[in-house]
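so my prof wants the structure for this chain in the tokens format not the other one, which i didnt know existed until like an hour ago. anyway here's the sequence
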Amino acid sequence: MEVYLEYAILDNFIIDFILLKISYKCARVRTSKLRLIIASIVGTVFAILVPLINLKVFVLFPLKVLVGILIVYLGAIFSNFKHFLLSSLYFFTFTFLSGGVIIAIFN
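here's what i got, hopefully its the right format
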């Protein structure tokens, strides 16, 4: 199977950007495009590097959660912890749901 790196980068960037934007909108958190771009770049770099590193599942899952929390944190300035927590919950929920839909489509 061939995977073109530029498509993987572009797809991950766009998906991260959209998921973050929707999460912040649902949590009523203000953000800027620059912050969304920075957070999406961090998420994309992580998504590109993960397949290149051989990690066990018990290390990989917490690492993915930590990076998810990091990109939510980088994507906006939060007035309080409640907004950050709500944005994180929305982000993980939408990520889980969209990933499930994509897997269902391909199967």
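also thought this was worth mentioning. The CA atoms of residues 91 and 97 lie 10 Å apart.
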